[in-house]
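I wish you would study the pair of lines that follows with an eye to the fold:

===
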Amino acid sequence: MMHKSTALSQLDDAIEASELLMSVVPIRFITIGGMLAVSLFGNRSTTKDIDFLLDPSVDAVNEYHAEINKVIRGVARMSGFSNNWMNDELRIFIGGAKRLNLFLQSVKQGVIAYKGRNLTIYAGRLDFALERKLRRLNEKLGRPRELDFSDAATLVH
């Protein structure tokens, strides 16, 4: 488990140290899941990871994508986090055109989960976040479901 503001401020600093990424700041992500529970709703104090989608215009350039992953891994090493403390596994569930639409709609929604000097993380569309939580509750993963129940209930309210 991590304290999100410390990890994200370290990521913000790491982005600032990257000449390549400074050419496209602010770096924008959208997130769903645990980060929303921690940052927006306060129904828990920590999350084991941050699920994100990178701004598709930045993600489309291989050099930027690779550099983002490099700075995320660097923060993980420096802080003792797992390598996937911040991950884009969400991409698996959302195809290319849908990914762009979800990103743009989420930014337009205007709910900011974190804002630093070089990094802005928007809440993913809240109806989409609820849908993902409900799908997770329906999966048989052998993992504790209490957090997912709490997150889903909070999203409904």
